[in-house]
From TrEMBL:
<keyword id="KW-0963">Cytoplasm</keyword>
<dbReference type="InterPro" id="IPR014729">
    <property type="entry name" value="Rossmann-like_a/b/a_fold"/>
</dbReference>
<dbReference type="Pfam" id="PF20259">
    <property type="entry name" value="tRNA_Me_trans_M"/>
</dbReference>
<dbReference type="GO" id="GO:0103016">
    <property type="term" value="F:tRNA-uridine 2-sulfurtransferase activity"/>
</dbReference>
<dbReference type="Pfam" id="PF20258">
    <property type="entry name" value="tRNA_Me_trans_C"/>
</dbReference>
<feature type="region of interest" description="Interaction with tRNA">
    <location>
        <begin position="160"/>
        <end position="162"/>
    </location>
</feature>
<feature type="domain" description="tRNA-specific 2-thiouridylase MnmA-like C-terminal">
    <location>
        <begin position="292"/>
        <end position="369"/>
    </location>
</feature>
<dbReference type="GO" id="GO:0008168">
    <property type="term" value="F:methyltransferase activity"/>
</dbReference>
<protein>
    <recommendedName>
        <fullName>tRNA-specific 2-thiouridylase MnmA</fullName>
        <ecNumber>2.8.1.13</ecNumber>
    </recommendedName>
</protein>
<feature type="binding site">
    <location>
        <begin position="19"/>
        <end position="26"/>
    </location>
    <ligand>
        <name>ATP</name>
    </ligand>
</feature>
<keyword id="KW-0067">ATP-binding</keyword>
<dbReference type="GO" id="GO:0000049">
    <property type="term" value="F:tRNA binding"/>
</dbReference>
<feature type="domain" description="tRNA-specific 2-thiouridylase MnmA-like central">
    <location>
        <begin position="230"/>
        <end position="282"/>
    </location>
</feature>
<keyword id="KW-0808">Transferase</keyword>
<keyword id="KW-1015">Disulfide bond</keyword>
<dbReference type="GO" id="GO:0002143">
    <property type="term" value="P:tRNA wobble position uridine thiolation"/>
</dbReference>
<feature type="active site" description="Nucleophile">
    <location>
        <position position="113"/>
    </location>
</feature>
Length: 397
């Protein structure tokens, strides 16, 4: 007999660890499983020194969140544990975040947190506690495949779908994980929270990076890497030096506002060169990308990812629907042709593969963007702008 989590046995004989962040989503997961009779254990991770952070609506994992998770567990009558993962979180997520920005990338720390902490360390803890599954409040669906393995699918509520942030989940992790909210709209989640009498029913959703509660991520980088943020030049693709900046970490590819220079026409950040500390700017059309090179690709398809060309649908940002793409695998690595093109693609972001563009389509994996390949003429212009000697450039300003 299979229960509602596709596990053998009765719910009361099945232990499930729920990752409780203190928000409404994970709280409802714990409440639903408890109501069904499962042996539920709540676990909250203390990921950073919340005593030094300014808690405010939209910031997760702060001190108030731990308190909220504890109150929910008391209301539901389930055991609840707070685990100190601060050191591990700093090493695996925060340090990598700082180094990525200093390298001219735009990182997504939530993916690293899921990959390195929640679905690795916490999953091991769940097994140590004798659990048959680890459940979370993510909006992504997990379904059984013929043969006993499981697969990931986009959430029914497309506005809440979090599959983009979970591309690095391995097959073994998928088999152990459960996502009870994957087929549920957000309004229904809050409705259930009210029915269960949970105080977090109307709590604001988390939107900020948890360890940057003020939104000033450069302060985090300066504290972790003192002296590493260095000034440099703002250079137009045509070679003109337009001004100076206080550090490439203050910019992201595709940025238009706050660049600090004006020439009478819209300017966008086209490229960030960490080696020369240059911010390259130009017109919007220079942002178009047709091919991206990937690193650390995680493939979740049924068949091994062999050399050759594979038709997929891809997302290079979380807010975009999957677009037609071609996955090209060679001895030299993996690249993705974005058939319709994308604007403002940045190294450090993710490219996630799907089986189709239809709602609730299957997740086929993804990889980290190592480089965005512009058109040939644009690549030449970027290369030229990067090679302008700094002394000569300064004299032409």
């Amino acid at each position: 007999m299979q229960n509602s989590l596709d596990l053998p046995g009765r719910p009361q004989d099945t232990r499930v660890v729920v990752a409780m962040s203190g928000g409404v989503d994970s709280s409802v997961v714990a409440g639903l499983l408890k109501r069904e009779g499962y042996d539920v254990v709540g676990v909250t991770l203390q990921l950073y020194d919340h005593g030094e952070a300014e808690h405010r609506p939209g910031a997760c994992c702060a001190g108030q969140d731990i308190y909220d998770a504890r109150r929910v567990a008391e209301t539901l009558g389930i055991p609840h544990y707070v685990l100190d993962y601060e050191r591990r979180f700093r090493e695996a997520v925060i340090d990598a975040f700082a180094d990525s920005y200093l390298a001219g990338e735009t990182p997504i720390p939530c993916v690293g947190c899921n990959q390195q902490i929640k679905f690795h360390d916490l999953l091991d803890t769940a097994r140590d506690l004798g659990a048959q599954a680890l459940a979370t409040g993510h909006y992504i669906a997990s379904r059984a495949l013929p043969g006993g393995r499981r697969a990931l699918y986009r959430a029914r509520d497309e506005e809440r779908d979090q599959s983009y942030f979970l591309f690095a989940t391995t097959q073994d992790q998928i088999d152990f994980l459960r996502f009870p909210l994957g087929d549920m709209p957000k309004w229904r989640t809050r409705e259930i929270a009210r029915d269960l009498g949970l105080t977090v029913a109307d709590k604001a959703d988390s939107q900020d990076i948890c360890f940057v509660p003020t939104g000033r991520y450069t302060q985090i980088i300066e504290r972790l890497r003192p002296g590493a943020i260095e000034p440099g030049e703002i250079v137009h693709l045509d070679g003109r030096v337009l001004g100076r900046h206080d550090g490439i970490v203050h910019f992201t590819i595709g940025q238009r506002r706050g660049i600090g220079v004006a020439i009478g026409e819209p300017l966008y950040v086209i490229d960030l060169d960490a080696k020369t500390r240059r911010v390259l700017v130009g017109p919007r059309e220079a942002l178009e990308t047709r091919r991206v090179a990937l690193r650390q690709v995680n493939w979740l398809g049924d068949m091994p990812l062999g050399e050759g060309s594979h038709e997929v649908f891809a997302k290079v940002r979380s807010t975009r629907p999957p677009q037609p793409a071609r996955l090209v695998v060679t001895e030299g690595g993996v690249e993705v042709d974005l058939l319709a093109g994308e604007y403002g693609v940045s190294p450090g972001q993710a490219c996630v593969f799907y089986e189709s563009c239809e709602p609730q389509s299957r997740v086929l994996g993804g990889g980290w963007i190592a480089a965005a390949r512009p058109a040939v003429a644009l690549a030449d212009a970027i290369g030229q702008a990067r090679r302008i000697p700094r002394a000569a450039a300064a004299g032409s300003a």
